[in-house]
Amino acid sequence: MVATVLLVTTAVSLVLTALPGDAARLVLGPEAAPERYQEVRQALGLDKPWFARFFSWLFQALHGDLGFSFRYDQVSVAELLRRGLAITFPLAGAVALFSFFVGILWGLLSAARLGSAFDLSLSLANQTFLAIPEFWLGILLVGLFAERLGWFPSGGFPGWGAPGAWRYLILPALALALPRAAYFARLSRAVLADLLFSDFVRTARAKGLPERMVFLRHALRNALIPLAAGLSLTFGRLLAGALVIERVFSLPGLGYYAVEAAFGRDIPLLLGIAAAVTAMVVAASTAADFSYGLLDPRIRSS
Amino acid sequence: MIRLVLGALFLLPGIALVLLGLFWLPFPPETVVGEPFLSPSFSHPMGTDWFGRDLLSRVMVGGRTSLAVSLLSVASGGALGILFGLFAGYFRGFWGEVLLRVSDGILAFPPVLLALILAVVLGRGLPGVTLALALFNFPYFFRLAHAGTLELREREYIVAARATGAGSGRILFRHLLPNLASPLLVQATFSLSTALLAEASFSYLGLGVQPPHPTWGRMLWEAQTWLFRSLWPALFPGLVLTFSVLGLNVLGDFLRDFLDPRLRPFLLYSFSASSKGRT
Predict the structure, then answer these.
(1) What is the mean pLDDT of residues A228-256?
(2) How far is A173 from chain B, CA to nearest CA, in Å?
């Protein structure tokens, strides 16, 4: 796990620190005095060769120091990451949980009536939500609920302290959650549909358990492992989706900073974000690996 | 079979508009041809944008880039992934292990970030976006080809081929590759649909083709800023895009079940995870 994070960050930092082009010029603008220019170049380590820059970055990063942003004057990358995550993390987390439960409920109802009209309409809704680009869904939601109906703000974020701050996150959360819920519905329907024809379900029915118990106690419990795997996959997918959705709703989260950093060639910030995102994605998949043992004793003992 | 027809039907509008656009356009896509924000009418079937440019023409031209970038990135990332996967699976050496780790690394990395980083390195434009998508596609094909080769290399017909004196190249490309074609083809369909979605979100963010040239994603960005004036410009590019993705997903489902139901466990699921359900 640590190996993957290290590998990815190393690759990214190698690419970015070895970059040609002059960050000092970019920070200062074209009219800076030559002395100041030299000063900034030195501060950024641009006078050293790229491998020296790379190793000093890696050394500091391993000590928890991600450096300072080029663009946001004198703000550390760690502080910007904290600000961004304060929005991105609650957003992605809430959406993951919400879509997980709604999706499973949706899939359960569908699997309970396999092949019915309800099941079919669900499959259709499913395919549609999986094909809709999240950012377009976001735009449509803004058009409908913000511009036309005025129920929610169309974008921006006043900060967590402000009253009604959550109202700013409803539409972005919805834009992210609908496709994810469709994904979980589809996953749980497929897994349950397979399980419902297995021997232990037939046994449970044969011994006279009510259908509700067969579903919840037997089928759903055995479906939990693929669903947990799906949840961990979804978390990474959600982070990626949040990067774009935050742009749609002008939320100053991690994605907002990522785009700003890329367009402003703010290399330390972009590196920090890449490292943080990779770490979170890998942590989610490791958590899923651990959860299998909790969910299924058979895996624990082996 | 119904899925084949449905998929083709969904896919038709986007492809037909783009192909037609190569030969004929109702209006020049980058000039003002009417009032801004006209609603759909007979002369402007999709209306006009904030500038007064014909939206249908812009959708027809915009799709070119989206389709070309998606096709190119899936083809190049896929070809490299298959090639390396075959070799790594067949010869099972140190470099195969390294490539597996690299694939894991790429899979743990959101494609949007990849595109942003490449935009810093290569500048904003098509090369960065295409490379990002190709890199993103590589692991899916690599792992599929790798896993398939590992399983097939011990089969009797491969042993027999080796015994009759066939060289590695012949075994890899005449015996192994054709037997892996079905899962790879299915993966390609899903990869194409995720590439379309990803390309649109990249160009929405301002990566890729720069204005005034239209792409579906960029048109949606422009439409969003004028949302308070009109919903139409935000509607049509998104609709065409969604239908194309939907068509590819439905076709992929059809292909998977049609070609071989047993190959399902082979398939790695792509970024939209559109296919994850039917395990």
Answers:
(1) 83
(2) 17
* Nearest to A36, CA basis, from A46, A44, A47, A28: A28
Amino acid at A235: F
ipTM of the complex: 0.81
Listed residue (B105, B131, B102) closest to B116, CA to CA: B131
- How many A×B Cβ pairs under 8 Å? 157
Phi, psi of A231 (to 5 degrees): -65, -40
Of B113, B121, B227, the CB nearest to A277: B113
B238 closest CB neighbour out of A127, A133, A243 = A133
Say what the pTM is. Answer: 0.83
- Count CB atoms within 10 A of the CB of residue B106: 21
- Cβ(A159)–Cβ(A201) under 8 Å? no
pLDDT of residue B260: 65
Please tell me if residue A231 touches chain B, with a CB cutoff of 8 Å: no
Mean pLDDT of B239-257: 87
- Chain A 63-92, residues with CB within 8 Å of chain B CB atoms: none
Q: Buried (b) or exposed (e) across B150-178, using 16+ Cβ within 10 A?
A: eebbeeeebeebeeeeeeeeebbeebbbe
Q: Which chain A residues are Cβ-neighbours of B121 within 8 angstroms?
A: 15-16, 19
